[in-house]
Design brief:
With about 350 residues, the chain is of the alpha+beta class. About 30% of the residues lie in helices and about 20% in strands.
Length: about 350
């Protein structure tokens, strides 16, 4: 570099002088708004570099900010996802608790509505592994005085019966849908009796109903009490279809209780008939509240009417006292007859002999 400058020293000095002269001229010349020319040149020289540096810094800062924001968003997203999963689990727990409270409320309502019949609540703890056997296991046994052939019901309808007491806190329940199950049933409207049997399918079959009997889909079936297990009047199910058969009709029945969704049941400790709660007879029938679930209410007895007065029936009553008018019938206007005491007959009196007067002495 020094060798080159020494060989072209004259040119180098000339170039330096020219450059200094140009700079001096640029410093002296003023342009618009009283701005020196050298400042324009300096701005034009520095601005591209500044723009490039600013653009680079901006892009670099933007990428870094986006990376940090994406990292924070990922962390926040993971936290929100975990919170959402926790809330979903909590929501399922609340739904399960609400369903359990509703079932227990229905069981309690049925028990409170029939305090005359002793009942015991139980939980379903298992089911049979055999597909051909429709049985359940409950958490009640010998310790709770459970015996065979006790009825098992729900507020929706009957479920089955106890077939075996396995331990102090375990019993086996035979469901209505089992092939070995049988229940005495009757139609709620016509009071026709039959025997309800399980088929191994969700629907049941009603036997021993003659072909002359008119059976329509939707008719309600109740327990008849003939089996000495279920009290009379409990809801069994509804008829789905009926067809003539030989020698009896083929009637299919849908059970009222959901046998595939049992969790809580009631065990009847006696065969006491469940009497539905009736409103006061003095109140109007439209004001009476609904009967308890699972039990069909009885029809009220017809009021006893007094015999009509227009038939001319004699009203028997005590004899009115003397001096008081005899009551008359409002319908006929005739005096009501009263029994008269029997007339007392007196014995005929015998005349007493006349006293004899002594004859005068002569």
């Amino acid at each position: 570099m020094l060798d080159l400058f020494s060989r072209h020293r004259t040119l180098s000095l000339l170039a330096g002088v020219v450059l200094a002269q140009i700079l001096l001229l640029a410093f002296q010349i003023r342009r618009e708004h009283d701005v020196r020319l050298i400042r324009y040149w300096a701005a034009e020289l520095v601005t591209p570099g500044e723009r490039a540096a600013t653009w680079s810094l901006t892009k670099t800062g933007g990428v870094w900010s986006d990376y940090l924001a994406l990292h924070h968003a990922r962390v926040e997203n993971e936290r929100l996802r975990a919170e959402l999963d926790r809330l979903r689990i909590h929501d399922r727990e609340l739904e399960a608790q609400a369903g359990e409270a509703q079932r227990l409320r229905a069981l309690l309502g049925l028990r409170d509505a029939h305090v005359e019949a002793p009942m015991l609540a139980a939980q379903v703890i298992g089911a049979s592994a055999d597909s051909s056997s429709h049985t359940l296991f409950i958490n009640r046994g010998e310790r709770d005085h459970i015996r065979r052939n006790m009825a098992v019901i729900t507020p929706d309808g009957i479920v089955g019966k106890i077939v075996e007491v396995l331990a102090n806190n375990t019993s086996q329940v035979l469901l209505l849908s089992d092939k070995d199950s049988g229940v005495g049933a009757l139609f709620a409207d016509t009071r026709t009796h039959g025997v309800l049997r399980g088929t191994g399918d969700p629907e049941l079959r009603l036997d021993y109903v003659t072909n002359d009997e008119k059976v329509y889909p939707g008719e309600v079936l109740l327990t008849s009490g003939d089996d000495r297990i279920f009290p009379k009047g409990l809801l069994v199910g509804t008829v789905t279809n009926a067809a003539p058969g030989n020698p009896f009709q083929v009637i299919h029945v849908r059970p009222a209780a959901r046998l595939d969704r049992l969790e809580d049941v009631l065990i009847l400790l006696s065969q006491h008939e469940l009497i539905p709660q009736q409103a006061d007879q003095s109140t109007d029938t439209s004001e009476a509240g609904p009967a308890a679930p699972g039990v069909v209410p009885r029809l009220p007895a017809p009021p006893q009417t007094a015999p009509a007065a227009s038939t001319g029936a004699t009203v028997v009553g005590p004899k009115p006292p003397a001096g008081r008018a005899v009551p008359t019938s409002s319908a006929t206007g005739q005096a009501a007859s009263t029994p008269k005491p029997p007339a007392t007959t007196r014995a005929p009196s015998t005349p007493s002999p006349a006293p004899k007067t002594p004859a005068p002495k002569q």
